[in-house]
Amino acid sequence: MHKVLFRLFFTSILVINLQNFSFGNEEHEKKDSIHNEETAVEKFNPGNFIFDHIKDNYSWHLYTYKGNHVAIPLPVILYTKTRGIGLFWSSKLAHGHTYKGFKIAHEGDYKDKIIEVNEQGEFLSRPLDISITKNVAAIMISGALLILIFVSIANSYKRREDQAPKGIQSLLEPLILFIRDDVARNSIGEKHYERYTPFLLTIFFFILINNLMGLIPIFPGGANVTGNITVTLALALFTFIITTFTGNKNYWKHIFNPPGVPWWLKLPVPLIPFIELIGVIIKPFVLMIRLFANISAGHIIVLGFFSLIFIFGNMKPVMGFAVSPISIAFTIFMSFLELLVAFIQAYVFTMLSAIYFGMATEEHHE
User: Fold this and answer.
1) Does 238 have pLDDT greater than 90?
2) Which of the two ends of the chain, N or C, has the fewest CB atoms closer than 10 A to its terminal CB?
């Protein structure tokens, strides 16, 4: 049943978007051909190449063939006071085109964002933008995969009660037990670990699956979800909110009135409480930056090695062929290293969250 749902899910995505591929828009064929002739003579820019691959986008780029960019368009959802709600496919804005008074800015403060323009193409305002971007679509896909996988595992436990795990159940059970026993129980304690285990399991597998899908260069992989700072900010905020609202009185006492600290460090200037409060804010900030920086850096290094082929090829075609084996070898090596980092960063984020929960629920000892 779940295999059928899985196939229907991806089939529906392809059927909905197939007719809206950016290369299938006939009204823009003439302009696109001019644009392709202009871009064909441009020299390879490694900076643009790298950041175009790791940044979020309004469409899901698949490949480029003879200057033609083939991409899956995504829904654009906008709101302005003058035009109301705007709902259309991102292919309408491809290659700098304007549609219904909206276009993607290519420079200025709102570069790569959709802006509202007048008939002369001049900036009017930045609309409320809740579009389904590439990262949002990738999160939906990874979320659907997680639901399908773990609902299947839960049903397998029900069907095979008191039996040895089998299939994907046997693959993921060691990870589930590891997070429960070695991360949650050891960091939080026997009394409180069970209430936090569902969140820790969710955040571990969410980060892990998006890290792994980011290493797959073809659809539905290739999105830089955990290398997007807004995503890591949201994950860190979840940890911060749970820590803040579940912390016991002993936790807050150690922040505002830490025992064993001389009174003159707490009164009249609350130096130590101020430092402790800064630490409360810094902890989720560190979670956010660590995950974002490590995942983004891995992608940048891999794409950097790959770019060497084209950089030397532009100098001299023979040099491009000579550098290719070395560049590909380093790219493969970094890809395997990123595979290891995908697991490590999911573990580190989960472990630190568990430690923060343990600190917030620690009982007072005389």
Assistant:
1) yes
2) C
